[in-house]
């Protein structure tokens, strides 16, 4: 999950480490050096480290993460009702099915990565759905405790 905030006139993104790990392990995308530097200097691995957030203010990294639509942007989902979240889920499933249908004859690696990114996005939508329905809590950056609406 990612959360974008303006702080001191500068845009910052909070992104979960599991999202960075997904990018580096499951996509063709090289992770920008500025993100890797942030990881190297700010992470202490304790417990379920994948849910921890990395705070990044470098412009190239913020833009890079904004363009990765398979990582759920919390602000796009936090105010939706259950029916709207279900609709997003159905749309994502339909888009993934179209991708597979269109490419059934090709065993194209890029298509497989794209399909995998739909699966990743679906997992993020499920996390939001479970949070909205009270089935599971959601981890948010400690720095934003006073700014984020919790249900």
Explain this structure to me?
With 151 residues, the protein is mostly helical. The chain folds into two domains: 2-66, no CATH class; 77-138. 51% of the residues lie in helices and 11% in strands. It contains six helices and three strands; from the N terminus they run ββααβαααα. It has a three-stranded antiparallel beta sheet. A hairpin with a 2-residue loop joins strand 1 (2-7) and strand 2 (10-16). The mean pLDDT is 83.
How would you summarize the topology of this molecule?
Blueprint: E1 2-7, E2 10-16, H1 17-26, H2 33-42, E3 53-56, H3 59-66, H4 74-77, H5 82-102, H6 109-132
Antiparallel strand pairs: 1-2, 2-3
Which key features would you list for this structure?
3 strands, single chain, 151 residues, 51% helix, 3-stranded antiparallel sheet, 2 domains, 11% strand, mainly alpha
Tell me the number of helical segments per DSSP (H or I, 4 or more residues long).
6
Helix-strand pattern: EEHHEHHHH
State the end-to-end CA separation.
17 Å
Name the overall outline.
globular
- The helix-and-strand class reads mainly alpha
């Amino acid at each position: 999950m990612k959360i974008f905030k303006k702080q001191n006139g500068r845009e910052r993104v909070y992104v979960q480490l599991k999202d960075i790990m997904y990018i580096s392990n499951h996509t063709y995308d090289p992770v920008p050096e500025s993100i890797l530097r942030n990881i190297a200097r700010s992470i202490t691995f304790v417990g379920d480290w994948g849910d921890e957030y990395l705070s990044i203010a470098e412009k190239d990294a913020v833009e890079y993460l904004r363009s990765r639509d398979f990582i759920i942007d919390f602000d796009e989902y936090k105010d939706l009702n259950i029916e709207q979240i279900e609709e997003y889920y159905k749309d994502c499933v339909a888009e993934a099915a179209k991708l597979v249908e269109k490419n059934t004859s090709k065993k194209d690696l890029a298509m497989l990565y794209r399909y995998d990114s739909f699966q990743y996005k679906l997992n993020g939508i499920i996390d939001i759905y479970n949070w909205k329905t009270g089935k599971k809590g959601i981890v948010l950056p400690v720095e934003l405790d006073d700014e984020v609406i919790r249900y």
